Structure formats: structure tokens, C-alpha cells
Amino acid sequence: MRPFKFTTVSDISSATNSVAGKPNARFLAGGTNLLDLMKEDVERPEELIDITRLSLAQIKPLTDGVNKGGISIGALGKNTDAANHPLIRQNYPLLAQAILAGASGQIRNMATNGGNLLQRTRCPYFYDVAMPCNKREPGGQPGCGAREGINRMHAIFGWSEKCVAVHPSDMAVALAALDAVVKVRSASGPERIITLADFHRLPEDRPEIDTNLSPGELITAIELPKNRFAEKSYYLKVRDRSSYAFALISVAAALEMDGNRVVQARIALGGVAHKPWRALKAEQLLVGQEATEANFKRAAEVEMADAKPLEHNAFKVELGKRSIVRALQVALTGNRS
Amino acid sequence: MQEKNKVTGTPVSRIDGILKVTGKAAYATDYPVKNIAYAVLFKSTIAAGTIRSIDTGPAEKSPGVLAVITHKNAPKLNVEGGIRGGALLQSPKIEFHGQHIGLVVAETYEQARYAARLVKVEYDQSKARVDFEKLSKEAALPKDKEKADAKRGDARAALQNAEFKVEAVYGTPIEHHHPLEPHSTIAEWQGDNVVLYNSSQIVNGAQNAAAATLNIKPENVRIVSPYIGGGFGSKGGQWANLVLTAVAAKAVNRPVKLALTRQQMVNSVGLRQQNHQKVSLAATKDGKLTALAHETTTHCAIENEFVEPCGDCSKIMYEVPNSLITYRVVPMNLILPTYTRGPGKSTGSFALESAMDELAHQLKMDPIELRLKNEPTRDPSNGKPWSSRTTVQCLQEGAKAFGWEKRKAEPRQNQQGNFLIGYGVACGTYPAHQRPSSARVTLNRKGNAITARVELAAADLGTGTHTILAQTAADALGLPLNQITVKLGDSDLPPAAGSVGSVGASSYANAVHDACVKLTDELIAKSGKQFFVRPTAAQLMVSENVADYQTRVDAKPPANADQYSSHSFNANFAEVRVDIATGMVRVTRFLAVTGAGKILNPKTARSQIIGGNVWGIGMALTEESVVDPRWGNFVTRSFGDYHVPANLDIGAMEAIFIREDDRASNALGVKGIGEVGIVGVAAAVANAVFNATGKRIRELPITPDKLL
Ligand SMILES: Cc1cc2nc3c(=O)[nH]c(=O)nc-3n(C[C@H](O)[C@H](O)[C@H](O)COP(=O)(O)OP(=O)(O)OC[C@H]3O[C@@H](n4cnc5c(N)ncnc54)[C@H](O)[C@@H]3O)c2cc1C
Ligand code: SF4
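Output (C-alpha cells, whole complex):
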């Protein structure tokens, strides 16, 4: 590991002040991703700002503002606590399921909600400093190891010639489906609100930039609006082993029904793009329609029609269709078996 | 299994269990050696070529660094000394991606790891041979005589005229051993002598290889390895890291510790090679096999050859008049493959036992019946009688215990909601051998309290060797278990076989038993008395008023052992549940029925068997080390990418042992269980997947994409 400076802060403004103007400083939350990457020499911060003492762990109902009736989830709360919180279990079971589908019990006990959104891709070329990677070395030797390499786990939507990585978070996929917003603070300027849809970005020509967070910005909370999806939602994660593996494909699906008619649908996909992928075409197609298998299939077909698979991941197109249909069916009926 | 008043054959818990779970058992790098420095290896980033220049200047100047060793300043070592896989820093030549090219020694681990990143290397690259799919076409006959074409009758002709036949190619990927404890060593020189605290499956083998490579005498090398955190073959032969730790310690004139990282494990300590196995079976319509051909194509290292014996099961499992077993191998720029749990048998049985299932399906015959029809009465490969063979019992008892009659004969007939259910069966076998081993037993008496110490340079991989030897000694000496101390894993102790090839239990237990019998005989002789009932050693110590007594034996396998063909056998039963939409497979139930001679401890034996089963399920469903065919690097370098099964992947596991008393195999009738537990498992799972879905997957692992 490279030597680095370690700074502990106890409030938001000292946290944001500590990083202001220091492009090589990083916040340290649970450390489950950042420290791994530092050991592998992928992340090379000169300074770590330990933010774990900030009081940003609360989960509370929102009593005013645009998301009144919704919920605020503190950035420094642990993934485990978010997944087990009664308000989340009751009103946002999709989010609880998505969090529990990720990592392992031990890691979720350390991992924070803010850190989860900012975890970096699991592309193996990114993790191996002996390999070319535009995301890791934007100024260095150009090249994406995965574009023509082993890319079974990689993107089928929204990739660029520069980078074909996917965002690995499960939690973020549920948050995308549930129209979450992210609240951030910086040393200069007032609180900023970024919708989850705009939080992560596509790689385009700048794969080194994962999100639209500006340098020095601190995530303080994630907010979810009130919704009527609690009864009919499901997070499906397809993976190479039953737990503790990243998604080949995941689907966060939520329905609001009037009888057998879909009033609102939310579908987001994980494991397919550089960001959680909202399946807007599928959603639109379902609204006002009967919730039938045929309609679910049609929606899935329409959404996956735009997929552009790479050499090793063509299976994700068919798997994506099937998974969307299955997730919607389980959301609708509650029957997983 | 249990005899009256005997502790052998009873399910006692590991005697070292408390030490382990409380962290008190000292593994290699746990030894509290003073004034220690830390070494970190650095590795090539190309797969083939030579190092043109290597700049260690910045690393040497980095804080805390004591030495940087590369091929330019490494001492001359004997590359023929028995270290596997090369990478001993003797030349600038690069033969695989991730070959060791140097190491940094520093005051702290972090300083060493940091400095290792500062070394700048330039290469002259040559074209790397790393694409097995392409290179397999160039594969040729191995140099190893044991891998020459083995023919009985004329399999090709019989296949041509066959009424029913299966001809298919089965693929198994590279796998890594990935023991929980990565390979790790502390080296401490005292004058001309070096102590190597090192995780070794073959203590004396490590001693000899280290000595020969360092150009010193074996008596100048001591290996200390009492506990091992798994090895699975990767700690059988020794690799460069062992000797390089000694080199580093010499260079800085201090004890040095070197532990591989998980990422370094993929190209430091061998691997299970990728295989293409073509199996051809011919049969009559009533299911009698008329021909069996098993043709394996694989890869080895550029300089050294290793070919796992994939055809071994096919040689002996079935009565068949025409048989052909062949191997072809192609050198590649990858680390040398090596013994990996159930070498050849685990992978070979996947091919053979899948093909048997395909044949049964074609014949519309129950796969158990097909196997029973072809049961050989003697070893078909050499005509020798079996010391014992339990395949039939394993199949029959297993079928009963598993509820095999509930299996639907036709695939895809058992749907429950979103899932398809399937049953699969497959057989396995592994040779049983006793190897020469010595043992020393010492008795001490204080008043009427007698304690015994059992010592030999055996290795306990974490499987319970300490415990079974204490049990063996307790019964042979007439002492309670808690009066026995077992000391293993030190080359200063009487030499012993390695814990490899499933020979540990039989070699060690027979040696310890012989030593205890000899000790008792000697005490009787010393007493000068005639006894009507043979007394125990414990009784003699008291009656003859002996304070201390020690003896030692050099035990050998029975003289007539090679008159028999001696093997463990099993039958594996798997129930799988396959998600129709997503292709995710879960093994909901698994049963292994094993005939492995005398079971010394049913508890540790069960753990061994289900441990093998779990790896077999990993082989079937999840494990695969993937090489980038452009550059020869592994893209699966962490447990996030290399998927060993997680708890949720494993359903209900059951292990049944067939009672047998096979004294033709060795005096105690103990056969090995270390490897047979993985043999046949992948095929049982794949056959169950076929029964569930109607899809025959011939390329492992069976990941969801293959079932869409
Ligand atoms: C073996 C393994 C398996 C895993 N499997 C899964 C999985 O299946 N699904 C899944 O979703 N995840 C998985 N994870 C990832 C895990 O969820 C993340 O590592 C975790 O959520 C990161 O949170 P953290 O608090 O530890 O972040 P850290 O590692 O502390 O930080 C990550 C990044 O976020 C930044 N950061 C943290 N908090 C803030 C903040 N409040 N404001 C601004 N920046 C911040 C840090 O500077 C850093 O750059 C796995 C991880 C491991 C190690
Ligand atoms: S896909 Fe992205 S992260 Fe992976 S190697 Fe290419 S640039 Fe790097």
C-alpha cells in the first residue's frame, strides 16, 4: 500500500473542508471497497478522511419537502441496518431485498449506504494493474482490457469503445426503480440534490468518472418518495452462485395495480450497464395494460431490443428478457416458488 | 466399524479442535520468530519473453527496504532440485504471466508491498502460447511413459460396429486449489542450518527439495509444519516461494516471512489443468459395454510436463473387452499444472460417468442398472483380484437411502412451480496405497499415570490426522485418548510419507500401530515373563515398573500388496433444482456412499467426504479459472471472481460408509478418503441437471447461461 495521510473529522463541514481542493483525498466510510482497491494499487489516495464519526446514520420518515411521506436514509448508515429497518421493510421491501442480495452479512455490516452507491466496477481488468484499463489509467496507456477480452460480466447497454464495465451495486438498482434522490454537500455552496437516475453516468469518453458527483462532494442522505409499490415488488438477482456473487443480471420490479390493470410500473436492471438501467420503454408499455404474461413478455422484448452484447455476454439479452418477466410475475403474485 | 472398548472407529472430535478455533494452533507464519523481516514477491506482466531491464533503484531507496532480489543478484540455485514450476530467479526468461521475477524484503509487510510496486521492468516480448482452444490441435504424446496409449482389444473397430454408442467431448476448465491458508513460509538461518516454517503436505519432500535447490544437505534443513490450512495438492510439491524465503533470509541475515496473497496464488503454486476429454462408449442393446475409449487432450508448462490421469477411472470401472486410453499434451505459457484433489479421477469421472448416463438414456435403461451390468469381477486393466470392491453396495444402498425410485426416467418430467427437479447418479474410485513411514512412540510413567507421545513427520492438512493417530495409539497401547500426545509436521521427527494421494491415513496409522505393537512386544521381552493373556503396554509399564520407554518402527506396506488391485469406491447421488427462467441450479440433496475400508473416525471421515463433495459441486456448478487468451493472465484472481460454492449453494449433505474389512489392502484395512469424495460428484450433478432439464452440459461449470 502507498503511504497516505489519515484524518478524522466529526462534522459535515470539517469533512467537506478537509477534501476541498484536494483531488487525491478520499472519504473513508466502511472501507470495504476503497481499502481493497488501495491494496491492489488501483486507488492511490494521498489522504483518507475518516467520516465514520459523522452523525449521518439515521433512517427517518420525511415530514416535509417534496418527498414528504417518504424516507431519508443516512449516507453513513450500514447496509445491514437499512435492510432491516422496519420502515424500509414495510414501505420499501424492494430496497431491503436488493441490499440483502448483495455481498455477505459481514460486508453489509461494514458497508455504508453512501459507499454502496460509490463502489467501483468489478471489471477484473480494472482490478489488475498489470492490465490496460481506461477507467483506472485515463491518462496512461490507452486501452480497455475487457472490450475485446473476457467480457462475460460486462455491459449490454450504454457502453462505449472506451469502457464496457457495469456498475456492481444491487442497492442502487432498487433505488433507481424507486425514484430515489441523493443529497450531497460540499465546502462551497448549498446542499445539492441529484436524482438517482442522474447520479451514475455512462462511460462515454470519460470512463474514469463513475458519477455526476463533483470532486469534494459528500453524500449525506438518500431520499425515497412515498409510493404504492410496497405490496407488489420484487428484486431478482441471477448470479453464478447462490450468494456472494455479483449479478449476471438483476431486476428490480414494482407494480401499482388497479384490479388487473397496471397503474404504474417501475423496472430497473443491474449488471447490464455502467449505471442502474431504468427500463423506461418496458414501463411505458405496461402502464394501462393488463398484467398478463404476454404483456410482460412484450415489455421485456421491447426493452431488450436495444441491447448491444459483447463477445461473451450475448446470453444476457435472453436472460434479461426472462428475468424481467419473472420479476414482474413474482412482484404481481408474491409467489416465488 | 467400532470394536468393543476401542476408541478407533468412534466419532471423536478433533483433539486439536479447541486449539484451532481459539487461534492457538500455530500455522507456519504464526511462529513467534524474533526480529523478522517481510518479503513480498513481484511478478511478470507478460507471459513469454525475456526481461530486458529491471530497475530496482527506487524500490531499494524506499523506506524500510532491506533488499531487492532479482535474477541479477540472486544466488545460484539448483533448478533441478525438486522445486516445481521454476520461477527461482535464475534467468531473465519469462515462461508464464505472473512468474516471480523478484522480491523485496523490508522491515514491514506494507513497506515491502509498496516497494515491490516501484520496480520498473522492461521486457522483450515473444508470442505467448496461451490459447488452449487453438493450441490443443497441436497436442502430442506426453513424455511420461505412464501416459502412453493403453490399448486392450480394438476399441475403434468395436465402436464402428456398435449397435449403441456415445461419442462426446467433455470439457473441464482450469481450477485452482485455493486453500484457505495461502502458501506461507518463515525462514530462519542458524549458521549453515535453516529452519523453514512452511505449510507442507510432504514434510520430508519439502526438506529434500529445499536442500537440493539451495545446494545444501537435507540435514541442514528443518521443516516445521504442524498445522496446514488446506492444500489439496498445491502444498504437495513445493514451489519457488519456499526456497526464495530462505534466499531472502540469507540475504538480509535475518528471519524472513513470505506469504502469498490470494491474487498471487493463481500463478505461484500450480493449478488443475484444462482438459478436453473425448469418451466413446459402445454397447449392446441389453447394456453390455463392448468398447470404451477415453482420449484426453490437455496442456502443460513450457519446460515441464504434468498430465493428470483423466483415463484412470475408465481403466478400471467397467468390464469391457475393448479399451483405449490416450493422452495428448501441448506446452503452454502457463504455470505448471499439478496434483489437485482427485487428480485425473475427479475430472475423468465427469467425462466417463456423464457418458454412461448418456448411454443409459439412449438404451432407456436405469443408469444404476447399466453400471451393475458392467461390474468387473477383477481389475480389467491388469487382471488382478480386487482387495475389495464396493461399487455394487454403494449403488444399491445409496439408491435405497436416496429414494432413487422417485426419479423420473425421462428428463424434464418433474416440474414444481418455477423449478425443474432432477436426480443423478455417478460412481467414483481412487487407489488405496500404503507408503513407507516411520513412527516413534514414547511412554512415560509417573506413579500409575502413563502418557504416550507419538511422533512422525506426517502432515495434517486439517483433516484430523492428529486425532486418528491418537485413536490408533490409544487402542494399541491400552491408554485413554487423553493420555496420548501426537506430534507431527517436523522433519526432525521420524520420516513419513506425505499427506498426498490419499495415502496419509493408511501409511501413518499402520506405522503408529506397528510401533505400538513393537513397543508392547519389547516390553514383554524385557519382562522375561510368559503371559497367558497379552498385556497392554500401559499394563506392562506398571507391572514391570518401567519409567520411560521408547521405540521406533520403519513400517512398510504388506509384501503382497501388489498382488491385489486396491481402491476406494463410491456412488454419488444428487438432487438438483433448476430455475426454469434463469437457469440457476441448486443441489438440494447430495448423498455419497463410500467404501473405503476401515473408517478410523466417522466424524472426521464424514467431514472429509462432504468436503470433497462440496468441491465436486463447485466443479460442477461454479469454479472456473479464466485465462485471457490474448495475454495469458488470469482474470479470476479473487474469491469475488473465482466462485467456490457458498453455504447457500449446498443443500442437505449425507455420507454413508460401507462396512468392509479389507486386510488385503494393508494390515489395518484403512483405505484413503482424502480424494474419493470428489470423484464422480460433478457427473452426478450434471446427470441430475440432464434429468431435470433434458439439457446435457458437457462443459463445466454449469453456469446459468448454459441452461437458457
Ligand atoms: C467480496 C465482496 C462482495 C460484494 N458483493 C456485492 C454485491 O453482490 N452487491 C453489491 O451491491 N455490493 C457488493 N459488494 C460491495 C459493497 O456493497 C461495497 O463495497 C460497499 O457498499 C461500499 O461501502 P463502504 O461504506 O464500505 O464504502 P468505502 O469503501 O468506504 O467507500 C467507497 C467509495 O465511496 C466513497 N464514499 C463513501 N462514503 C461517502 C460519502 N458519504 N460521500 C462521498 N463519498 C463517499 C469513498 O471515498 C470511496 O471512494 C461486495 C463487496 C465485496 C468486498
Ligand atoms: S471495461 Fe472499463 S473498467 Fe473494464 S477494462 Fe475496460 S475501461 Fe477498464
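The longest strand of chain B covers residues 565-579.
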